[in-house]
Amino acid sequence: MSLQGKHIVLGITGSIAAYKSATLIRLLIKMGAEVQVVITPSGKEFITPLTLSTLTQKPVVSEFFDRRDGSWHSHVSLGLWADLMLIAPASAATLAKMVTGVADNMLLTTYLSMKAPVWVAPAMDLDMYRHPATQSNLQTLRERGVHVVEPGDGFLASGLEGKGRMEEPEQIAQAVAQHFEAEAQGCKENSLAEMEVLITAGPTYEPIDAVRFIGNYSSGRMGYALAAECARRGAQVHLVSGPSSLPDPQGVHVERVSTACEMLAACQKVSNSCRLAIFSAAVADYRPEHKAEGKMKRESTGASMSLSLVKNPDIAATLGAEKKEKQIMVGFALETSSDYEEARRKMARKGMDLMVLNSINDRGAGFGTPTNKVTLIPQEGEPLECSLKSKEEVAKDILNYLTNHYLQQ
Ligand code: C5P
Description:
Elements: E1 7-12, H1 19-30, E2 34-39, H2 43-46, H3 49-56, H4 75-81, E3 84-90, H5 92-100, H6 106-113, E4 118-122, H7 126-130, H8 132-143, E5 147-148, E6 152-155, E7 161-165, H9 169-184, E8 196-201, E9 206-207, E10 213-214, H10 221-232, E11 236-241, E12 252-256, H11 260-270, E13 276-279, E14 286-288, E15 309-311, H12 315-321, E16 328-335, H13 340-350, E17 354-359, E18 371-372, E19 374-378, E20 384-385, E21 389-390, H14 391-405
Parallel strand pairs: 1-2, 1-3, 3-4, 4-5, 8-11, 8-13, 11-12, 13-16, 16-17
Antiparallel strand pairs: 6-7, 9-10, 14-15, 17-19, 18-21, 19-20
Cofactor: Mg(2+); FMN
Binding site for CTP: 285, 295, 332, 346, 350
Pfam family, one: DFP
């Protein structure tokens, strides 16, 4: 993979993983990139500017101005020069400052002026990483379009073991190169301009009585990430969402529903005009035949009780059977194993063009997690296995694949 001629601003913050930045620079340069380092004051405690400037053959930028002659370092011109900004390692403090816009060093002013896509590779101790403050900061950055290279699991400098270890330089360089490759293939902003898209997301709640329901653990994250990414690419998006605590993605028309029957009705209102439909909702397969009046009393039943359940409509299969010419439909298959054949049977049964398979046995994949590990299974041809990524990155992979293989004609 090549980064020929690409200008990369590499931000380095105060983390022990800064020692890996030297290898990262070597790799980026070997792939053809020009690298300009911007380092925070505490980053310099971990790796010397001399090492970095020798590797990049450019003076390292750290201060707002040169102490020797007072010349001004322009973060604005770096923002214009760059094809991409990569902050690796990104400390918890820098992530927090990126969220709130605290511009107290050259790296942060450069970030705030950046015109190019921004990538971060977090690196910190496991407790810092899983702290709600850090997680919420990462989520906010993802929602603002920052790409997050998920940290790995393993031995940490603190002596502890867990998630927080900066991803290896080879993987980071590869992710960046893949980004440029996808961009070159036309997966850019506005590549879905004017296209109408339907996305289902979240669980459904099937009422038992006034206060109880049958539901599942789906958070809606995957569907919301797909909706946000489609909107970013210029599509007109109808997101039909079951109960989810997530906010409406920017620029997306959201219809909130509760049950599978309501979800089907909401989809049918808009599906005819949609070129693309992605069914990522975790729809309950059954609903109680009758909803009890008010709240059922504990005393009204004996030691056991039975609920009579009836099958819910299959939204994907219903719309798949009514599919119009040129419509592309994508289903999700959450299985207990990576069973390609079962996913293919499901694809045929539901009239889907592509299935996104994920296994509940894969760590970090499936319901409720911010990450997912999927395999894209077309009707014909080889499945594409993707690595564990944030759901926002998975959404990009799915849409890049659809743009390249299904949506061009
Ligand atoms: O059959 P299974 O539930 O595994 O199929 C999963 C796919 O079908 C997902 O794309 C899901 O959104 C969709 N589905 C649906 N309506 C249902 C059940 C599943 O749209 N009632």
